[in-house]
């Protein structure tokens, strides 16, 4: 019988610990499919964050490192500098990890155009610790630590990572995608593949922001959570390519003269 | 380089690290150790190595963690406030059983403190410095020659025991210039089959990790690590003993404090006082065996420190408080004089009569 759908080789046969309906599973699969298609599993090192995907090291078949909270880009920098030509290095980080406690590491890895690939899961909440306000939580969003809704006057506005990083000269490629429909999943995979290919080609820092859902901590069914992405997340976090230096795309480039 | 060259202590550390095969250095500017970064910035690009000025001390230690995971020799350096920032990363290195070398050219504290020499990070270094149950190997040079020699030893011990090793220097030993020979025999680093260098499709994936959600497993890992520490305590204690054979007053201190104390011991001997010196070279493991040995004749220990009295606690533990231990100290960047130590020796000699 012909096999038409199977587990990617770069994912181990281990059950995920993720909640039902969580989109981490989809993104893990996309990363693994890309690793398979590029034939790089044997020379890839992944860096897991602190957060829901802390145990990603158990799921990916390539060598893995578990980093301290927010420090994955610095750890990835070390690995890549140790083996600049022999290893492909990616980080997989959530919003608390990448856009709050690890903002400095993110910004400076991008500014150096460090030749690494960053997969950034933005689900606007701290999942692992049970649903607290994230740097990317939307204004008005109710969480355990913003029980009356996020009030920008008291706790500021969400951090828009792709927009912010695209102001830097450094990074090669920044794109925001989502995985709430088949079409969007296909687009996300294309972006992730390009982010890895850029590293193989020595082009430098690529970050793919994946707008994701957290049905458990958003208090919704998985289906409603996917719709909430369309209705609330995407208006605040527009999809698209924010920077692609090789293709001459720079969304916020100042006009000459 | 068998002949001697005149060098600053900090530069000797940097050159020795390169000799030891370290090709990756990450740092952040802070006085009084910036010569190490400056030296690496000059040398590393010429020998195919990496010098990277990180965005923070925290990033620097995590870059170290990355290189260490990938199995290569790697170093960072800082001074007291910067070492506090690295504390998290040092704990992760220890918890992941990764070798790396960290240099602390201590300055006065707490807080921003000052930029003059100090030894007040003794507790932080010898007790680990970060969260959790762990130790790091701590080596205390007291000359520029030892800055070089102990740096090489730090890389070797870190690789052998799979843990971070620290050179606990200070503003004085880092800044002073002395002749130094780099005529060292460098051992080949051991194989690192655990390193995350890619599976190459030939083995199951390696994981560098310090997370164990199963408490029984985490307990077992801690017990195993501490069993390794016991071997280190047994095998790796290092100290210099000077005129301790018949010493009634045993002065003790490390690094710059030991150099000052030694002058005072010589002067005390000239005045007919049976004084001697123990200079710990390994601060962890603390060389308790030489202190126990000195108890045969010692009636009093004097701990000379550039701190409010930190090492003195280990001296008391090593001697089981069998004889009194007194403290002779200056802090805040001030340094005890040989005359101050001599006075303490004379006072002690009077009291034990």
Overview of the molecule:
The complex is a heterodimer of chains A (about 260) and B (about 350). Chain A is globular. An eight-stranded mixed β-sheet of chain A has the order 2-1-3-4-6-5-7-8, sandwiched between helices. In chain A, helix 3 packs across helix 4 (about 105-110). Helices cover about 35% and strands about 15% of the residues of chain A. Chain A has one domain: 3-Layer(aba) Sandwich (Rossmann fold). The mean pLDDT of chain A is about 95. With about 260 residues, chain A is α/β, with parallel strands linked by helices. Chain B is α/β, with parallel strands linked by helices and about 350 residues long. Chain B folds into two domains: about 5-200 and about 220-235, Thiamin diphosphate (ThDP)-binding fold, Pyr/PP domains (Rossmann fold, 3-Layer(aba) Sandwich); about 240-350, 3-Layer(aba) Sandwich (Rossmann fold). Chain B is built from twelve helices and 15 strands. Chain B has helices spanning about 10-20, 35-45, 55-70, 80-95, 120-125, 145-160, 170-175, 215-235, 255-270, 290-295, 310-320, 340-350; strands spanning about 5-10, 25, 50-55, 75-80, 100-105, 135-140, 165-170, 175-180, 205-210, 240, 250, 275-280, 280-285, 300-305, 325-330. In chain B, the strands form three sheets. Chain B has a seven-stranded mixed β-sheet with strand order 3-2-4-5-7-6-13, sandwiched between helices. A five-stranded mixed β-sheet of chain B has the order 10-12-11-14-15, sandwiched between helices. Chain B has a two-stranded antiparallel ribbon with strand order 1-8. In chain B, helix 11 links the parallel strand 14 and strand 15 (about 325-330). In chain B, helix 1 packs across helix 2, helix 1 packs parallel to helix 6 (about 145-160) and helix 9 crosses helix 12. The longest helix of chain B has 21 residues, at about 215-235. The N and C termini of chain B lie far apart (about 50 Å). The mean pLDDT of chain B is about 95. Strand 2 (about 65) of chain A pairs parallel with strand 9 of chain B, so a sheet runs across the interface.
